[in-house]
Amino acid sequence: MSRSTRPARTAVAAASLAAGALLLAACAPVTTTLPYSPSDGARVNLNDAVRGLNLMVVSEGDGAPGTVYGALSNGSAEVVDFVLTAEGAAPLSVSVPAGGTVYLGEDEAVDSTIDAVDAMAGESVESTLSGAGIVESFSMQVFDGTLPEYATAGPTGS
To answer: Span of the secretion signal (predicted)?
Structure first.
């Protein structure tokens, strides 16, 4: 009687394939552990504790005023005075208490209106965010009321 080696070869091939897949998976970066902005806006890390989250502006653009949306987060032990400057607009200053977060465009106690947005919807405006003695440049996306989620946003509510 002759015994077939086919089942043994199949098992060895399957084991090799499984081991190779495990080795390749171990080499791949886990993207869910990387910081990112899960929204339309930009993330600006000034340091490990002080950052801007999902920063964007809603405006009709072309020099019209706009409302900045997003959050300024201060995980430090001191008050941080943030200054957001969009190209062509007057600076927007917001003070955030130690361990606090201010939601721009949502918190009625904070005026997050900028006087002029020099880009059209779908474009971005070059901006800087400063706080805790650090300044970072970034591109802030411009939206208008075309998308339903922004239909009532902006300085005019339309």
So the answer is: 1-25
